[in-house]
Amino acid sequence: MTPVEEFENAIALYFGAPYAVAVDSCTHAIELSLRLLLEDNKEYKFTCPSHTYLSVPMTFEKLQLPWQFTNEEWKDYYYIGDTNVIDAAVLWKSNSYIPSTLMCLSFQLRKHLAVGRAGMILCDNENDRDILKQMRHDGRPNNGFWHEMKIERMGYHYYITYETAVTGLDQFRKLAQEPARKWTWQDYPDLSTYDIFNKGEMTYYV
């Protein structure tokens, strides 16, 4: 078992999720989760709380999705519109996984598990897990030599390094049961006031 797989198993067990997919940031966890949803060609309403981190609405722009800010006063986590994707970047609570969701975690330096550049996607669908694992690692179906593989899926260079996973495991063993800071929407500025998001077409959807 690789350090990445050990890290995934430890986090999945802590949060009470059947599966976990480690990536290099929560932002990329959200992006891959949205890309997975978009493969179904279903209609979704993409929304974003005005009080959150910059990269969330920027991800919508990157994926060229229609979206709107909301007035949501969230705590610990929030859903990305009417999808099953959850931004749980600031959540740290045992057995808190919500079934049938793609729950995205952050282990950035200000978070409870402060690994650095790392994130995780929790899920309970084995097929979703397998697809997400391919997507995060340049479409590679396993950890072998890529030039010997048949690459059949478009992927992205979002794989977590073994060194980061080892650090994550070490931090987890020290901090798993330690009380974590509670985050809410009030910890973030109002992004709807930022010029970069003020295009005249983004309005509040309440």
What does this structure look like?
This protein is an alpha/beta fold and 206 residues long. It has a single domain, classed as Aspartate Aminotransferase, domain 2 (3-Layer(aba) Sandwich). The chain is 29% helix and 14% strand. The chain is built from 5 helices and 7 strands. It has helices at residues 3-15, 26-38, 55-62, 126-136, 162-175; strands at residues 19-23, 46-49, 67-70, 78-79, 85-87, 102-106, 119-123. It has a 5-stranded mixed sheet, sandwiched between helices. It has a two-stranded parallel sheet with strand order 2-3. Strand 2 (46-49), helix 3 and strand 3 form a beta-alpha-beta unit. Helix 1 (3-15) packs parallel to helix 5. The longest helix has 14 residues, at 162-175. The protein is globular.
Strand order of the largest sheet: 1-7-6-5-4
- What CATH architecture label applies? 3-Layer(aba) Sandwich
Low-confidence stretches: none
Largest sheet descriptor: 5 strands, mixed
Please identify the structural class as seen in this structure.
alpha/beta
The percentage helix is 25-40%
Beta fraction: 5-15%
Please provide the count of β strands. Answer: 7
Average pLDDT metric: 91
CATH level-3 fold name: Aspartate Aminotransferase, domain 2
Number of domains: 1
CATH superfamily: Type I PLP-dependent aspartate aminotransferase-like (Major domain)
* Alpha carbon gyration radius: 17 Å
Order of helices and strands: HEHEHEEEEEHH
Quick one: overall form? globular
CATH class: Alpha Beta
Query: Number of DSSP helices?
Result: 5
Distance between the termini: 46 Å
